[in-house]
Structure formats: structure tokens, C-alpha cells
């Protein structure tokens, strides 16, 4: 295993931690700045929108410089954003720091996948990319709960300072261990944009927005829901986030295993199951054991949709997968932003901390409807070439599927 993959995995770990740790720290941040929980939820929305904007823009700009240099620039942005968040004197500055950090998210995983694949022999590309994405998976099992614990015990600013330090380690690792790679040749924006003329690409991205939005509707406000409704202590939120991370890990394994075998049936089952669990969550939230089971299932069912949705986009965006893949990463985060915003609205309207789950159930059900529509449309049109016949970069970004 090239040591450069470890440097990429450290960067992925830091990015995954800063994205999700905010959910466990919302009450502390809201109290510190004197804002409401729904207002604090804008820190989730702002980060997600930053990914939506940054993923395609920085991916296109990244074609003009070497990949190693672009990865270093992205990690620099990530470190800067987390330093600003750690030192922010006001909520507005904190929000700005979150957005700056988020700009690196999508492009790092898109460009990093290509770099990881180029470090090993052709028959080991998938394993190399999976190694990098392991950092993101471990972040949700270790980094996020640990960051939540640190934030609750010492202060949330310390959490973001630690994450910034992780970013520095990743940046130094990339600078020292990742070999120099020339900038990509022959990449043309016009060619990449042709993928978006395919209705199936747009439908897959819409499923991504709505399906994963269902997950974030529940998880964004998990801390106040578990403490105020279920009766867990603040310290227990750390372990509940571990449970959610385990669900994510298991769901990603499930989705990755079956996406190649039965993609659309897998989507029907996972999106349908997610809608049902979220619809029941307002009731389950009043029992500690059932609430914990629901959190595990939301993580598992939500992340089981990630492999088939990412593969669906790459299959349909044949010949121009790079930008489409980056935009789909942005689509996951657009869903996060939409869900966090809608969840904050229903809480502010007085429906309680469990009400965002109803929003999530509606979003997941809408995604399921789009899945059936997409399948019906496909049956009426000729089959298109898949990502299996696309160029080497397409193969490089096809297998690992975490957002």
C-alpha cells in the first residue's frame, strides 16, 4: 500500500469529521452564540451549500493545475475554514468558516479518487480508492463521536481546532508522500456538460438530493431530539453518533455489495425502508431503546442508497463522468442543506424536535417515487452505454461511494 494513500485517508478523515460533528454540538454552539437551535442548523445548511458550489467549480479549476497541487490547495482551504470556525467571535463568522471548509469537500474526493487509482497497478485501483474513502467511514465511527465528546467536555472550539490540526497533517502528508502528477490533458468543460442532457442523470441526482436529505432531516437535530424528547443525557449523544456511524458503515457495505447485482430493486428497498423508519421515528423517539434502533436503521438505510445512486450517475453519464460525479457529491449535500433548513422551519413553527423526521419521511418517499419513474422511463428508451465502457478515470471513480 503506497503511503500516499494514508495521507489521502487522513484528509478524508478530517473532512468527514468536520461535516458530521456539527450535529452533536448544535446545542452548545447555539447557547454560546445566543441563537436558537434552528438558527444553529444553518451551520449544516451553509456547509452543504458550500459543497454544492465548490464541487463542480473547483473540479473544473483543478483541470488547470497538477492534481497534487490541487489537493494541497483544497486541504489548505479546509484548514483555513476550521481555524476560522474555532476562533469565530460571532455566529456569522462561524458560518463563513464552515462555508470555506466545505469548498474543499467535493473536489477532494473527486480528484483524490483519480490520484489514488494512479498510485497502484490497474487491478488494484478499486482497493486503493476504497483505502482513501476508509478515512471518511472511520470519521463517522471514531472522529465524530470523539469530536462531540471533546466539544461537550472542553468546548466546541477545541473540536474545530483539533480538526484543523488533522487537516495540517493531511496537507503535509500529501506534500511529502503524494508523487507529482501532471495536470489532466484533454479535459473539456463542454464535453463534461453533455452528461447533463441525459434525463436519467438528472433523475438520479434528484433521487440523491431527496433520498439523502431524508437522512439529514433526522440527524441534523439528533442532539436536541435525544436529550429533550427521548431523555438521554448530553454525554449519551456521543455514543448515539457512534451507532449512527456503525449504521453508515454497514449500509455502505450493503449498498456496495448489491449495487452491481440489482441496482434499482436495492433503491426501492432502501428508500422505502428509510421512509418508513423516518415516519415512525417521532413515535420511536419516546423510548430509549427504540430510538437507538431507529438511529442505526437511518444510518444503514440512508447510506445503502449511496452506492447505487453514485453508480447510477456514473453509468448514465457515460463518456463524461468526472464533473457529473463531483456534482452528484454536491447533490448529497444539497439534500443535506434542504433537509436541515426544512427541519429548522418545522421546529421553529412549534411542531417539536421530532417533527423533522416527518420532513425526512416525505423526502425519502419522493425519492422512491422518482426511482420508479426513472425505471419506467428507462424501459421505454434504448439502453445507453454504461460507465464500464467509459475511460480510465470513470473506472477510477466508480467503485468507492461515500459522499
From TrEMBL:
<dbReference type="GO" id="GO:0005886">
    <property type="term" value="C:plasma membrane"/>
</dbReference>
<feature type="transmembrane region" description="Helical">
    <location>
        <begin position="289"/>
        <end position="309"/>
    </location>
</feature>
<feature type="transmembrane region" description="Helical">
    <location>
        <begin position="266"/>
        <end position="283"/>
    </location>
</feature>
<feature type="transmembrane region" description="Helical">
    <location>
        <begin position="201"/>
        <end position="224"/>
    </location>
</feature>
<feature type="transmembrane region" description="Helical">
    <location>
        <begin position="160"/>
        <end position="180"/>
    </location>
</feature>
<keyword id="KW-0472">Membrane</keyword>
<dbReference type="InterPro" id="IPR011701">
    <property type="entry name" value="MFS"/>
</dbReference>
<feature type="transmembrane region" description="Helical">
    <location>
        <begin position="73"/>
        <end position="96"/>
    </location>
</feature>
<feature type="transmembrane region" description="Helical">
    <location>
        <begin position="236"/>
        <end position="254"/>
    </location>
</feature>
<dbReference type="InterPro" id="IPR020846">
    <property type="entry name" value="MFS_dom"/>
</dbReference>
<dbReference type="InterPro" id="IPR050189">
    <property type="entry name" value="MFS_Efflux_Transporters"/>
</dbReference>
<feature type="transmembrane region" description="Helical">
    <location>
        <begin position="330"/>
        <end position="352"/>
    </location>
</feature>
<keyword id="KW-0812">Transmembrane</keyword>
<dbReference type="GO" id="GO:0022857">
    <property type="term" value="F:transmembrane transporter activity"/>
</dbReference>
<dbReference type="Pfam" id="PF07690">
    <property type="entry name" value="MFS_1"/>
</dbReference>
<protein>
    <submittedName>
        <fullName>MFS transporter</fullName>
    </submittedName>
</protein>
<feature type="transmembrane region" description="Helical">
    <location>
        <begin position="102"/>
        <end position="121"/>
    </location>
</feature>
<dbReference type="InterPro" id="IPR036259">
    <property type="entry name" value="MFS_trans_sf"/>
</dbReference>
<keyword id="KW-1133">Transmembrane helix</keyword>
<feature type="domain" description="Major facilitator superfamily (MFS) profile">
    <location>
        <begin position="4"/>
        <end position="379"/>
    </location>
</feature>
<feature type="transmembrane region" description="Helical">
    <location>
        <begin position="42"/>
        <end position="61"/>
    </location>
</feature>
<feature type="transmembrane region" description="Helical">
    <location>
        <begin position="358"/>
        <end position="377"/>
    </location>
</feature>
<keyword id="KW-1003">Cell membrane</keyword>
<feature type="transmembrane region" description="Helical">
    <location>
        <begin position="133"/>
        <end position="154"/>
    </location>
</feature>
Amino acid at each position: 500500500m503506497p503511503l500516499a494513500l494514508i495521507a489521502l485517508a487522513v484528509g478524508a478523515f478530517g473532512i468527514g469529521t468536520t461535516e458530521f460533528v456539527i450535529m452533536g454540538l448544535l446545542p452548545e454552539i447555539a447557547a454560546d452564540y445566543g441563537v436558537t437551535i434552528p438558527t444553529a442548523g444553518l451551520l449544516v445548511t451553509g456547509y452543504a451549500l458550500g459543497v454544492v458550489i465548490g464541487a463542480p467549480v473547483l473540479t473544473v479549476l483543478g483541470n488547470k493545475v497538477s492534481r497534487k497541487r490541487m489537493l494541497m490547495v483544497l486541504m489548505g482551504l479546509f484548514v483555513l475554514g476550521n481555524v476560522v470556525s474555532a476562533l469565530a467571535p460571532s455566529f456569522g463568522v462561524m458560518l463563513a468558516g464552515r462555508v470555506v471548509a466545505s469548498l474543499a469537500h467535493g473536489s477532494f474526493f473527486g480528484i483524490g479518487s483519480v490520484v489514488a487509482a494512479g498510485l497502484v497497478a490497474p487491478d488494484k485501483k478499486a482497493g486503493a480508492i476504497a483505502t482513501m474513502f476508509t478515512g471518511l467511514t472511520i470519521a463517522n465511527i471514531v472522529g465524530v463521536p470523539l469530536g462531540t465528546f471533546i466539544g461537550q467536555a472542553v468546548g466546541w472550539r477545541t473540536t474545530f481546532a483539533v480538526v484543523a490540526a488533522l487537516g495540517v497533517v493531511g496537507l503535509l502528508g500529501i506534500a511529502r508522500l503524494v508523487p507529482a502528477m501532471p495536470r489532466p490533458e484533454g479535459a473539456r468543460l463542454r464535453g463534461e456538460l453533455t452528461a447533463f442532457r441525459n434525463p436519467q442523470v438528472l433523475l438520479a441526482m434528484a433521487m440523491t438530493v431527496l433520498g439523502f436529505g431524508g437522512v439529514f432531516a433526522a440527524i441534523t437535530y439528533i442532539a436536541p431530539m435525544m436529550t429533550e424528547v427521548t431523555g438521554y443525557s448530553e454525554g449519551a449523544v456521543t455514543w448515539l453518533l457512534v451507532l449512527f456511524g456503525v449504521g453508515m458503515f454497514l449500509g455502505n457495505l450493503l449498498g456496495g455489495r448489491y449495487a452491481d447485482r440489482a441496482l434499482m430493486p436495492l433503491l426501492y428497498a432502501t428508500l422505502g425502508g428509510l421512509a418508513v423508519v423516518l415516519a415512525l421515528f417521532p413515535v420511536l423517539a419516546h423510548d430509549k431503546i427504540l430510538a437507538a434502533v431507529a438511529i442505526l436503521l437511518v444510518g444503514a438505510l440512508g447510506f445503502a442508497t449511496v452506492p447505487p445512486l453514485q453508480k447510477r450517475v456514473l453509468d448514465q453519464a457515460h463518456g463524461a463522468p468526472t464533473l457529473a460525479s463531483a456534482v452528484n457529491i454536491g447533490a448529497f449535500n444539497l439534500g443535506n442543506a434542504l433537509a436541515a433548513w426544512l427541519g429548522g422551519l418545522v421546529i421553529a413553527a412549534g411542531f417539536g424536535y421530532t417533527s423533522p423526521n416527518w420532513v425526512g419521511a416525505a423526502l425519502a418517499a419522493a425519492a422512491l417515487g422518482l426511482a420508479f419513474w426513472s425505471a419506467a422511463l428507462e424501459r421505454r428508451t434504448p439502453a445507453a452505454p454504461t460507465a464500464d465502457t467509459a475511460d480510465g478515470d470513470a473506472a477510477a471513480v466508480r467503485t468507492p461511494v461515500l459522499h
